[in-house]
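Example 9 (inverse folding). The structure is encoded as follows.
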């Protein structure tokens, strides 16, 4: 079913029409004549009909709520890379290994999360620590919300320290 405008002289009429296949050809059948288009528009009856019909459509109900300011909008945040790499990070037991290496060190931030963030950033969008800190703001990565740029610098400096005793 659909709406169609029929012209009769200088007047236009709004019709509800459906297509039917008869003898292999498509024929249109008028289901209902709604009336003169100009009168329907002037009286607001057309808007009322459309609004009334929209309550039966989930898609139009959402669009209507959005247009009237009754819906909340949000932003999409990429989750995939962090979810996949987090599982691999855990399977390789890297949090435990980093925890052993950090024994006796007193970092006042989550160093393991800072390392995770910088490694994930270098895998997905290679760049500097500054770029990683900005990249984090557009992604949802558990445990990195409180990290600042200087934390990433300190984590990378720790990773770059020489190993003791020629290891």
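The amino acid assigned to each position is listed next.
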């Amino acid at each position: 079913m659909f709406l169609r405008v029929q012209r009769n002289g200088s007047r236009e009429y709004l019709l509800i029409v459906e297509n039917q296949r008869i003898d292999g050809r498509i024929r249109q059948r008028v289901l209902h004549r709604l009336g003169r288009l100009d009168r329907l528009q002037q009286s607001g009856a057309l808007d009322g009909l459309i609004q009334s019909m929209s309550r039966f459509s989930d898609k139009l109900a959402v669009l209507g709520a959005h247009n009237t300011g009754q819906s909340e909008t949000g932003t999409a945040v990429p989750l995939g890379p962090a979810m996949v790499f987090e599982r691999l990070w855990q399977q390789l037991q890297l949090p435990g290994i980093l925890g052993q290496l950090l024994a006796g060190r007193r970092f006042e931030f989550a160093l393991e999360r800072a390392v995770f963030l910088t490694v994930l950033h270098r895998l997905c969008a290679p760049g500097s620590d500054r770029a990683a800190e900005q990249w984090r703001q557009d992604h949802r990565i558990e445990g990195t919300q409180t990290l600042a740029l200087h934390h990433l610098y300190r984590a990378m400096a720790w990773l770059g320290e020489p190993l003791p005793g020629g290891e």
